[in-house]
Amino acid sequence: MEIRELQAYANFFFTMFLVFLLYGYIVHLYRSEKKGERDYEKYADMALHDEISDAPVDVNPKTLDKKGKE
Amino acid sequence: MQSNAALEYDYSIAKLFTYTTILFGILGMIVGTLIASQLAFPELNYLLGEYGTFSRLRPVHTTVVIFGFTLSGVFATFYYVAQRVLKVSMAESKFLMVIGKIHFWLYFVGALLATISLLLGFTAGKEYAQYEWPIDIVIVIVWVLWGVSLFGIIGIRREKSLYISLWYYIACFLGVAMLYLFNNMEVPTALVSGYGNIMHSVSMYSGTNDALVQWWWGHNAVAFVFTVPIVAMIYYFLPKESGQAIYSYKLSLLSFWGLMFVYLWAGSHHLLYSPVPDWMQTMGSIFSIVLILPSWGSAINMLLTMKGEWNQLTENPLIKFMVLASTFYMLSTLEGPIQAIKSVNAIAHFTDWIPGHVHDGVLGWVVFMIMAAIFHMTPRMFKREIYSRKLLESQFWLQTVAVVLYFTSMWIAGITQGMMWRAVDEYGNLMYSFIDTVTVLHPYYAIRALSGVLYLVGFLMFAFNIYKTITASKRLEEEPQFKTPMA
Q1: Contact indicator for B297, B254 with CB cutoff of 8 Å
Q2: Residues 7-26 of A with CB under 8 A from B
């Protein structure tokens, strides 16, 4: 096989792979929301409720507060 | 919760970087306006002897606006936003406060020394990477200090997940760290040979390899300094100022990973029609066009965030700043890919259309976004309302007119230039000499210089408004949740 032909095949399959990756990721995002595993949209609240006294969207288990209490 | 009641976010480092954003903004724009005027009126080259020539001042302009103004804005907003979205105060860690202060002072002194070194004529001769090796070492230390702050504050966070803006700040940190190091690999000549000036160095790469590494960095300076951290800002400040949640968090994920994957490949579009391998040029073109998708993904996400709330555009001038910024982001991320198409590039390359493109991006997108961020942060950091809404509105229109004048004049100048360089008569001889193009372009250069003056005046109005806000404006009893109060 000539190098040019090889390049063409490589180009075609690499493009297909990237397209698959892109759409696979979109499907993954929507599916995990539909199954109830994740709720991505709730994270938008991190910018809106950002007072230091506001409750975190997801509490970090290793926070300073917990360390302080130990 | 009781311990949190007394706790407040600590903005001391964000404030320091806010001051340098304004200082370097004024400095960079004065020099920019001067060199734009020099192109229209060459006598202005002789105001300050060798220190005032176009060739000395051009790198001063670009590096001061990139590494002085923009990076200061990036650091200022980072030290403000990171605490808030992670719900942790800088004051909770003495270590991070010390690192933050060293970060600022080393950055400030380094930036001044770097600018002086360029004025004295020490340059590595690579665009946006002109600083010589001793300055590069200082820059690396400053960057590592920022990394310690960045990952340090993430390490003590209360919020488990990282907000979108932080992904972009991290990408800015990692992207610049990698590319800056690789492009500035250089050999200090005096240390190796014993001859020459201690400041001087030569690149470790040669020929087209050097050019490729240079534009791998050069274009990604645009990506990771002018795009990524500015996107970080708009993802925080637009929702916060408008009180609207991001239209789609999922779209932001997709745009982020898309941008990260695609941007790094696009740099070779700066080398179209040069002796680098043809496939690399084509790759640069193709990736530039694919780049429209993730860029517009973020920009459309911003515009859709305002869905049903467009009345805010008339009620809140800061929303106007940010919507205009994201619109200019869309314009320049469409214009860039068009210029990267080989047949268009045949006309556009080396012409004034290129600085035209850069400036609708930076003046319309970067500066507008950073100014909006500072207008949002200042009342919260200093607990005072914005000094004057009228001044802010007039500044907005003055600078918008300036940007439009800048890019339209450069579009016309660039395409005229490209067409004249290529024009041949019936025998295949070139129809015009270089000086013919200069004569034709003079009015457009004069318009550009005028637009520089207008934009600079607008920026001085911004600086004055912020100064008066800090010193003389009405005090706020409590922090505004969304809309920034102004008199």
Answers
A1: yes
A2: 22, 25-26
